[in-house]
Amino acid sequence: MGERPFTRADLERLKDWDTPTICNGLEVVAPERRAIGFTVEPMVAADRTLKPIVGLARVGTIRAKEPPRGPVVTRLEWYDYVAAADLPTVVVLQDLDDRPGYGAFWGEVHSAVHKALGAEGCVTNGSFRDLDALAPGFQLLGGRIGPSHAHVHLVDFGRPVNVFGMQAAHDDVIHADYHGAVVIPAEAVRKLPAAIDLVARREEVILDICRSPGFTPARLRDAIQRAGEIH
Questions:
Q1: Structural domains in the chain (count)
Q2: CA atoms within 13 A on the CB side of 164
Q3: Per-residue pLDDT tens over the stretch 106-161
Q4: Residue by residue, what is the 3-state secondary structure of 204-228?
Q5: Per-residue CA distances from 204 to 13, 22, 23, 156 (Å)
Q6: pTM to 2 decimals?
Q7: Domain of 200?
Q8: What is the rounded CA–CA span in Å between residue 79 and residue 60?
């Protein structure tokens, strides 16, 4: 699978923070990605109570509005692709239909299958269903919820995709929760904990002032000057 600048434990540690906090850290360690690499449309989470999911991207494309017009990728090929990983994965599935989500790829069966294959969840602009029967702990972030799978079928996999503005490629590190998803550059994974701690300490200076009974605009101004740039 090749040498990576992070381990399973490094990925697991990133679950301690929500996705906005990961984005905050990335602004410190990878400022050139401040306006790219994350979803930019509202998404629906299957379960808002689940911890963030973190894993290597397994990318593919689907259609559902019409039957396939030629040879298609078989689901067995796709399953082999998802399973071929030495670390947990996150599926990033782009729906190519002019109305994404017309038919749901995700439901009771596929959530169970992909969880068994080592995936922690999926980020998609498509739809999902079977909310009361999804595999426990398997997170789905999608464009909407829908009742039918229509003619849903795989078109391709392994090539870069774009889901709500987030461009993702095979083996990219994905962090996602009910806020949305972000791609973490491999070289940034181990740098993020320290960067997140720095941002938190800067924010705490301001939060302490705002929550104190002695708050004044003057004290806030002083705290902002001491904290440096925050958002």
A1: 2
A2: 24
A3: 999 999 999 999 999 999 999 999 999 999 999 999 999 999 999 999 999 999 99
A4: HHHHHHHHCCCCCHHHHHHHHHHHC
A5: 22, 17, 17, 46
A6: 0.95
A7: 193-227
A8: 11
